[in-house]
Backbone:
């Protein structure tokens, strides 16, 4: 999500929250990522933008529940720093589970392609700085120093959260467990 997108009214997004990143990188996110001040926790985006919140009814929630329950929880290790032009982020050692989840949701809800169809590939990442190349340069240096000093962050990814913004602030709307059942 970009800062401009994060303030749009009537939006939802599917994310995996990484609470372990908050103690180490929360202050940095609040300095460099406008979304942090809008209630967005440290996360990996699974699908954004998703449908307007008023369209998320019991049938949509059932579809998401059945979709996500096919996936098993997995361990995410963040040990690298990556960059887009105006973004600094932490990258997972194994991005495949995030890509698989994104592709599965996009197949189930083809009217909501990843990144609104703007980007052709999926690059799982946990944004620390966004929107300003100079700030991202500073954040990149700080992230590299932190990882060198303290090592990687690990998180058990066991659910996908549906966040919504219909008021200017993001909040959790639903949570869907990853349980590894095929039926």
Residues:
């Amino acid at each position: 999500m970009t800062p401009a997108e994060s303030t749009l009214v009537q939006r939802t997004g599917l994310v995996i929250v990484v609470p372990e990143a908050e103690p180490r990188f929360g202050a940095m996110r609040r300095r460099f990522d406008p979304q942090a001040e809008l209630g967005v926790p440290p996360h990996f985006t699974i699908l954004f933008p998703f449908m307007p919140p008023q369209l998320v009814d019991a049938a949509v929630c059932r579809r998401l529940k059945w979709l996500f329950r096919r996936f098993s929880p997995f361990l995410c290790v963040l040990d690298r720093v990556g960059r887009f032009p105006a973004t600094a982020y932490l990258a997972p050692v194994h991005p495949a589970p995030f890509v698989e989840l994104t592709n599965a949701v996009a197949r189930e809800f083809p009217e909501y392609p990843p990144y609104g169809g703007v980007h052709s590939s999926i690059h799982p990442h946990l944004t620390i700085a966004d929107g300003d190349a100079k700030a991202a340069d500073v954040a990149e240096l700080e992230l590299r120093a932190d990882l060198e000093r303290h090592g990687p962050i690990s998180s058990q990814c066991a659910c996908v959260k549906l966040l919504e913004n219909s008021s200017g602030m993001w909040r959790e709307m639903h949570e869907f467990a990853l349980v590894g059942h095929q039926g």
Notes: The helical segments are 3-6, 21-32, 58-69, 96-108, 133-150.
